[in-house]
Amino acid sequence: MASKQMLHMNHGQGETSYARNSSIQSTEQNRMKHLIEDAIVDLCSTLLPGKMLIADLGCSSGPNALALVSIAVKAIHSHCLEFQQPTPEVCVLLNDLPGNDFNTVVKSLVTLQRSNAPVVVTGIAPGSFYGRLFTSGSLHLVCSSNSLHWLSKAPENLTRNRIPAYDVDEHARRERLPVVLDAYAQQFKKEFRLFLELRAKELVPGGQMVVSLGGRHSNDIASKSIRPCEALYEILHVMDSEVHSFTSLA
Ligand SMILES: C[S@@+](CC[C@H](N)C(=O)[O-])C[C@H]1O[C@@H](n2cnc3c(N)ncnc32)[C@H](O)[C@@H]1O
Fold first, then answer.
1. Does the beta carbon of 102 sit less than 6 angstroms from any atom of ligand 1?
2. Facing residues of 144 across strands?
3. Per CATH, is 18-152+180-215 categorized as 3.30.499.10?
4. In this structure, which residue's CA is closest to atom 14 in ligand 1?
5. Where is this region: Disordered (predicted)?
6. Residues 10-13: contacts with CB within 8 Å, 24+ apart?
């Protein structure tokens, strides 16, 4: 869950920073490259825009923050060069929750501005992608990688009944599994739908979205493929209870 105030990936460039621990996510971004290039070709050949607004939602920090928008900017320039079209002025906006390490991101955004001769202006759009971020009918391309499976909150029917996502008591966990799975599936559906409705307002007619998010192949959470995650769930559960006892003490 992404609490608007608290959660963020580890800041900076240190050993435990997201910048130095995001190679799996980077692989996922590489798989999106041709989809972004196709979207750009489509946009440039059908809309022939004089200006283009491109946004990455849930950009985080480190090299991944700029990866998708850099692919898009390069694709615009190659397409326009190949077909001798005038290159549109490009505005690149990066979004994440306010706690994100935008200081580091801003420094690399300047590199993007300098490394592209035609006009590329850049900016930050802080806030939740479960709310409005851009003006109506302004966006040409929305990209997002490894972020849209973050929900804004735990399902209310679980929090109301104090049911954790992962109960360390195996018996309780197995018994409540269908309820927990269903609650998270419903929450995801509700929030993903909201995300799509919001972006539909912000995109220009004919605008494009290229997104990737985590998921699983089957409902069987006991299947071998996810067992390595169990240790992680346990750690998160312990951290979660520590945060709660700290909050009640404070
Ligand atoms: C795993 S990181 C992915 C970062 C980058 N896109 C990548 O592929 O490496 C997920 C990012 O989504 C951001 N995020 C989660 N929920 C969000 C929300 N509601 N609005 C904006 N950003 C959000 C988190 O703060 C985090 O930086």
1. no
2. 211
3. no
4. 58
5. 1-21
6. 11/61, 11/101, 11/104, 12/101, 12/104, 13/62, 13/104
Strand order in the sheet with 89-95: 120-124, 89-95, 51-57, 139-145, 203-212
Answer yes or no: are the C-beta atoms of 99 and 162 closer than 8 Å: no
Q: Cα–Cα distance between 193 and 130 in angstroms, integer?
A: 10
Contact between 14 and 108 under an 8 Å Cβ cutoff? The reply is: no
What is the number of other CB atoms lying within 10 angstroms of the CB of residue 54?
26
- Spatial contact of 59 and 100, defined as CB atoms under 8 Å apart: yes
Closest CA to 210 of 126, 148, 167: 148
Say yes or no: CB of residue 212 within 6 Å of ligand 1.
Answer: no
Per-residue pLDDT of the chain (250 residues; tens, 9 = 90+): 544 556 788 888 888 888 887 788 889 999 999 999 999 999 999 988 899 999 999 999 999 999 999 999 999 999 999 999 999 999 999 999 999 999 999 988 887 776 556 788 999 999 999 999 999 999 999 999 999 989 999 999 999 989 888 888 889 888 999 999 899 989 999 999 999 999 999 999 999 999 998 777 666 655 444 443 454 565 556 656 665 555 455 4
Contacts of 146 (CB under 8 A, 6+ apart): 25, 28, 29, 58, 212, 213, 214
Does the beta carbon of 129 sit less than 6 angstroms from any atom of ligand 1? yes
Q: How many residues does the chain have?
A: 250
